[in-house]
Amino acid sequence: MDSDEEGEEYLFKIVIIGDSAVGKSNLLSRYARNEFNLHSKATIGVEFQTRSIEIDGKEVKAQIWDTAGQERFRAVTSAYYRGAVGALIVYDITRHTTFESVKRWLEELNTHSDTTVAKMLVGNKCDLENIRDISVEEGKNLAEAEGLFFIETSALDSTNVKKAFEIVIREIYSNVS
Ligand code: GDP
Ligand code: MG
């Protein structure tokens, strides 16, 4: 976060975590560029993307980080988490194992963070209702137990993607302003 004579400017680092193939990269590309990739390979090279929103007449920049496939090796580096003030913890509503991993991701996040982090539990791929494996209720209960916001999204059809990021950004803003 910076300030100058013109007014305040805000820059928030947000990380996206969760098992491989839950849709992290597509949530980010949908939010930052309105793009979706059906056959996305692990993103190479791209560390983060930014998108700005206006809150209280101020420009608030979200710098959103993608793991770029590191999670396949269970080795997301501490640099990834450093300075993060927001996090989306993503699972795939059609694969129970990805839901079971949420606790481990939360532990890793907590280990690496030294400030208040606004956290959103995200059940992605809600367009795949016919093969749903985790109910909305289960997602809600876990979020409540762990003190997280909760939302279901679809990076494919855009459902709630903007909302998921913006709830986190607004929560961070209210934490610091
Ligand atoms: P990541 O490994 O967590 O970054 O996941 P990706 O964003 O690479 O997505 C993994 C696969 O899931 C890709 O084939 C995507 O096209 C697909 N995918 C991602 N989000 C959605 C979604 O909301 N709905 C559906 N049906 N497929 C999705
Ligand atoms: Mg990815």
Automatic annotation (TrEMBL):
It is found in: Endomembrane system. It is a lipid-anchor. GO terms for molecular function: GTP binding; GTPase activity. The keyword Chloroplast does not apply. GO terms for cellular component: endomembrane system. Keywords: GTP-binding, Lipoprotein, Membrane, Nucleotide-binding, Prenylation. The keyword Lipid metabolism does not apply. Belongs to the small GTPase superfamily. Rab family. This is Uncharacterized protein. The chain holds residues 1 to 177 of 217 of the full protein.
